[in-house]
Amino acid sequence: DEALKLKPGSIDATILKAQLALQKRQFPRARQIVEKLAADNPNSLSALFMRIKVNLATDRADRAEADIDRILKEAPTMQFARYYKSIVMARHNDAKGAWDLASTLPKEFVQTDPGAALNVATMAVAAGYMDSAAALLNVVVYRFPYLMDARLLLALGRLCREQQLWGKAQSYFEASLAIQSSQDAHVELAT
Question: In a designed cystine with 55, which of 60, 67, 112, 184 is the match (CB 3.0 to 4.6 A)?
């Protein structure tokens, strides 16, 4: 708010405000901020990408997809748009399509963002590409060891389960639950 007082209408300050609302899980507030931002700046890629992030974070993949398709129509090779498109495809249960698209992203793009690497590894597991998933997860663990969070442990557990390493998979699922309770981890343990 202070930055916006100094420079009203600043796209960067408004994006920061929306990101902070997301971090605080103030989803209605984040949606309100990005909708106004996108309306005031309809040609800003930054505004569109922030709206995509908020819509994906609030399970509004269809709304995110409209913005993604708009960007891809203008710039079909834009990496962020292709990455977000693969996320939407995964959420629509198109595991193969999501992986096919995500696997075309440059390694540098995926491997420098632990969240992206984890999402793409999850797509690889869902599509049955365990070696690719393992390689990506190893990169995340090596480059970002401080990020051993519940999602990463869940993904490692799923990878071990697919490799029929039952005891190791169970350990990862339990470690994931110890950090954060999730329905996915409970389902994995129950199966």
Answer: 60
What whole-number distance in Å separates Cα of residue 62 and Cα of residue 66? 7
Distances (CA, A) of 101 to 23, 47, 106: 28, 24, 11
Residue 182: pLDDT band (50, 70, 90) is: confident
Q: Residue 174 contacts by C-beta under 8 Å, 6 or more apart in sequence?
A: 189
The one-letter code for the residue type at 171 is S
Whether the full predicted model's pTM is greater than 0.85, yes or no, is: no
From the list 83, 72, 77, the residue with the least C-alpha distance to 122 is 83
Q: CA-to-CA distance for 62 and 65, rounded, in angstroms?
A: 5
Burial readout 29-49 (b: 16 or more C-beta within 10 A, e: otherwise): bbbebbbebbeeeeebbebbb
Burial state string for 174-183 with b = 16 or more CB within 10 A and e = fewer than 16? ebbbeeeeee
Residues 4/27, Cβ–Cβ less than 8 Å:
no
The token pair that represents 32 in the structure block: 């309100």
* Alpha helices, DSSP H, located in 77-149: 79-91, 95-102, 107-111, 114-127, 130-143
pLDDT digits (tens, 9 = 90+) for 101-110: 999 999 999 9
